[in-house]
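Q: Is it fine to ask for two folds in a single conversation?
A: Yes, each is treated on its own. Send the first.
Q: Here.
A: Result:
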Amino acid sequence: MEDEIRALKSRKNAVILAHNYQPMEIQALADVVGDSLELAVKAKETGADLIVVCGVRFMAETAKILNPGRKVIIPVEDAGCPLADHLTPAMILEARRRHPGAAVVVYVNSSAECKALADITCTSANAVRVVASLQNDEILFGPDANLAAYVQRELPDKRIIPLPPGGHCYVHTGFSLADVEAARKRGGIIVCHPECLPEVQEEADMIASTGGMVRGAADGGNGPWWVFTEREMVSRLRYLYPGRVFYEKPDAVCSDMKKIKPADLLRALDREEHEIVLPPGVMEDARRAIERMLAAGV
């Protein structure tokens, strides 16, 4: 099956992009593995005719937005993101009405329609730098309220308004202070994603995106790491740094990220399904917000 996938990829001039939370058998077949920012950049840079996104729908939409003339597919059509579902275009429009002087910053973990209404997008890796680059004192920020709280703590001179107030990722809110306490008893460094609860962030030794975790582990010493994010991230870190010790939380699983199997990838390449199709106006406006982020160098 792997040979067939590689042969089809070569014949069709395809590139496979996979998120760090994808199963390792999918990561092993990918040309690029990374976080949302890394995948967005590679999607824009690729010269491939066919872009296959092994992740969830908003990632495939982002690839299509940045490559409107190329065919973008996602192997499993219903691989969604409950976090992205928290935010709707109607919420953004109403918030703009109530806060006319505020800038709208939309996390890439959102629908194309929401990105189209944003002034600029951000990722967990660059959220603080994106918001700091804006002149506005008030920032409407969605859909992750915990990432918003992280940005607020880092930038106290700005007023960060979470949109909606309770938006969250169920995987990351599954980490608790009890997990922190258990890790402290065993020793090591606690590294958490900024989608974790604020009280967990405050007790962590490091807060980082998944891409930041990869980079941080390169010079993070030889001690064990407790990794507070989706458990597949630990699989990737163990692969990249086989001499290091990393601990995961076994039940920290994003079920949508686990939907794509090698058979789905093979079928998608063979049939070129499921194609991402978006309204031209939505793509144009969303691309403007994403490219502002990329052009800002953050």
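Q: Second one now.
A: Result:
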Amino acid sequence: MNHSAIDCHTHVVPENFPAYAGVHASVPWPSMAPAHACHRHVIIAGKNYRTVSDGSWSVPRRIEGMGGMRVGRQALSPMPELLSYWLPADDAQVLLRYINDTIASMVAAAPERFTGLGAVPLQDMDMALRELEYLRHTLGFAGVEIATHVNGVSIGDARFEPFFAAAERLGAAIFVHALRPVGQDRIVGPLSEQAVAFPGDIGLCAAAIITGGIAARHARLRIAFSHGGGALSMMLPRLKHAWSMTPKALENMPEAPDIYARRFFYDCVVFDPKLVHLLIESYGASQIVIGSDYPYAMGEADPLGLLERCGLDAPTLQAITQTNAKRFLGIEQDVASAA
């Protein structure tokens, strides 16, 4: 397999953040502090939220890592905690503009290797729509990363209708990532929320996009769900059964839930060939893209190796590693092979 795969799930953290210059009190504005070797601590509200490597911001280091993973292009999106929906909207706008411009500088340094997915302050719809326009028209990004909810309100809620309408109109790809997931308060033992609660959170979100009618009203949206869509594949038969038994469901879902689910895209950060086959069976080989969650330890360090263990035929491998991602991201030109 050549080095022309497209990784749709990677994250960026800037090497530094600007000092807080707003007027609000006790704002959890991020900063960076030195750590060991080539790492830095992300400090939020006076605590070390996460220690990240220089692959988070360094273009040369990231390209080096891509070579080892046999990846030719990455879609760059912010570390989800930086989406900052809990900040005052004017502060979030300043922070996200800085992060978006940081991603833009990385894309500009190697446009044949990177595609931008920015962020918008969804806690304020007017600001979010302006930033989405900036991402598409000024920065030329493929689209935007959003979380599963905004301060506890599912993105399937009707209040986010203007955002999805604008994304459809602008042709912006939407990459959905779990964040501060529901159920994390019930985790017992040392495992993280990423391991235990993310699958349920992303599955609930994908289901809400269907049941709330977003998928039906905006058929041209290009939406991808991280971590294989989480639990959605297990929910779909129950959703379809409930839909067939509930006449009122036709108001938001004129078609069966699985029809809408097969229009979405899903990364294969699922760690097991059996689950890759489940994704293909549930959604179709045309809707699966690779992801690594680079540069984090909880990610998939060898996404192509995972696919090779699946025993897939050559056309399916081609679709999952390249063709589907081009459709999702709106990339028409051939991806350059790594040097």
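Q: Anything structural to flag on that second result?
A: Two points. Residues 333-339 have pLDDT under 50 and may be disordered. Residues 5-16+57-329 form a domain with the TIM Barrel fold (CATH 3.20.20.140).
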